[in-house]
Amino acid sequence: xxxxxxxxxxxxxxxxILFVSERVRVDLVGLLVLISxxxxxxxxxEEAISGFSSPAVIxxxxxxxxxxxxxxTGVARMIGRYILRLAGNGEMQIxxxxxxxxxxMSAFMNNVGVAALLLPVVMDIARRIGKPPSRLLMxxxxxxxxxxxxxxxxxxxxxxxxxSLSEFGxxxxxxxxxxxxxxIVMVAGVAFIVLFGRHLLPSRDLAQEYSAGEKIxxxxxxxxxxxxxxxxxxENAALEGKTIAESQIGYILGVNILGIIRDGDTILSPDxxxxxxxxxxxxxxxxxxxxxxxxxxxxxxxxxxxxxxERLVSREVKLAELSxxxxxxxxxxxxxxxxxxxxxxxxxxxxxxxxxIFRTNLQRIILQRGDTLVIQGSWEKIEELRSxxxxxxxxxxxxxxxxxxxxxxxxxxxxxxNLVNKSLEESRLGNAFGLNVxxxxxxxxxxxxxxxxxxxxxxxxxxxxxxxxxLLSIRGLQDLVIEDxxxxxxxxxxxxxxxxxxxxxxxxxxxxxxxxxxxxxREKYGLNVLAIWREGIVYRLNLxxxxxxxxxxxxxxxxxxxxxxxxSDPDFLVLMEExxxxxxxxxxxxxxxxxxxxxxxxxxxxxPIYIAAVIGATAMVLTKCLTMDEAYRYIEWKAVFLIxxxxxxxxxxxxxxxANYIANNVIxxxxxxxxxxxxxxxxxxxxxxxxxxxxxxVAVLMAPIAMNMATVMHVSPYSLMxxxxxxxxxxxxxxxxxxxxxxxxxxxxxxxxxxxxxxxPLTMVILLTVTIVLPVFWPLNP
Length: 782
Hints:
With 782 residues, the chain is an alpha+beta fold. Helices cover 46% and strands 14% of the residues.
């Protein structure tokens, strides 16, 4: 083993660890691999960046745009709806038609895009026939994956394998070379699921909407039956005249207000600006324990002493003024989005905007050119900001603070406060009440600019900046009375105007990793998120601060009109057909013709697929089937950069001799059993890797190994490369194995074990089918 092989395999092992751990984004892993190969001298710079000009990469992003054109013009949706509505009512028949429809569409469209298009349709079919969606959604995802095996553009691994053949000087697979084996594999997979696999599927129903006028009981599904209670606003309460948003009831108590009962009438899904009145009874979903604990213990006590501005500074801590530079990257962002306090270690105590000073709720103010920030910080941190190109320092020690004292207060943590032992971040004083904690006095010592991780203790005196009325609203929350009425069910709160639905993040979302608070979900859409279903676990508390993940299902409550409006947002996929984004149906014939003229010259051999695909993608935009912004959004850039970054690893495996080394070791163990054993070995190795690594990366890594095995064993490289293509897309045993699996996880209520229970026997069926069928169409003899 040479030093080059050791280096290549070391980089490969590290990449696999990063893929499996998911600590680093997969596209970033691809770029790290590319960089490592250059820095270790294994590849030249030109070889390292060759992936970005690879026909495989060009074909992949162009096919994403073609798929988007068919989706946005409604072509795919119309085909899917028409076929699926012929399905009847029998589960076996419906399962077969769903899988065949999804498979046929996935032969020419992005797998995840097809799953997203058909997901609301299948949900409606499940409601129509009275079956849990979990019985139909996994067959949908599997059908999409099986259909991708039937053509070269059906899935990125097929494109990569075909491109690898040409790089080794062989004739690449054509558009329909995958069809004979892929179609038989698809038929075998559909037959297994229809006859046997569907009996392994769970029966979990997360559907929420009315179906044919019937209310669906979902209390048990989301475990909300004991989470609904009534709060009464007593006479002369401090909350009188405050809006729901100002009261911070939801944020502090961790509840959602579903309705207001006033004078015998019930106002469902009230607006955040709805004003509270004495005597109002609030229908809430959450935990009564949080309010009882709030009643039982204190929270904050006002101190009588006045807080002077001078107490906010010391020898080490100063006040300063700074403004945003004209080219600042923070223009148009809020302090919360910037994470100003954590990032720069200073407090913003005021913001001057056009001669007006703002001293409360500063985290929500959008920063604009000309704004001046009054900050409190150490000399060291202020000097760091002075040298930061995003800011211009205008004053130190003589900052304009003449009006700050009006908002400065001192509050004390009582011994029984439920803030004791919580960090400043956990206390939510800033987010809930707009209170900016500028210092803590503990045992006579003043600690200015406390960190968000600093913990609060009984007896602490806090220097805070905020509004007195915000502090008084705490007393208003303590005035609320829990009523011991009959239990209220969520299904009783649904009307023709107000209802519930499930929503998932769309495959094209930009919201992964962000929280509902950061995207201002309640304010923007006017809908309540009651629960989040993630990997078989229901989350009902502190939903505003949970980072969103692809595959999450959100239970929403609110106006049906607003739910429909949410359907037009490209970040979300509402699981009801009537809420889907309106397609450009007038352009449907044009999009269909574009697709025909992409495929025809490729079939006839006039143009290579990557050129035809680019022409078609351009035509989709020029003919207004979709806008350029939509084209960019529909491209899965993560996949593009992953493939471009990993393709050089394939070159390094071949160039260093690592591919030959791996091939020889595999042959050493199974070579004596003959060529069929090699097919089985390659399939199993590839399929297992595809459960924990991106399928595109698996195809890139296995292609050179398969080529070397073919050379050593004197068998046809085409048969082994076809095996790699079939196995790389056999990613059924894990939700993380393919985005289509993740997409249906939340709506189907699936758990990790469900994928393994169905996916393992299905993979064995496909292995058996490939072993029997592949030598017939692609003989092992070279």
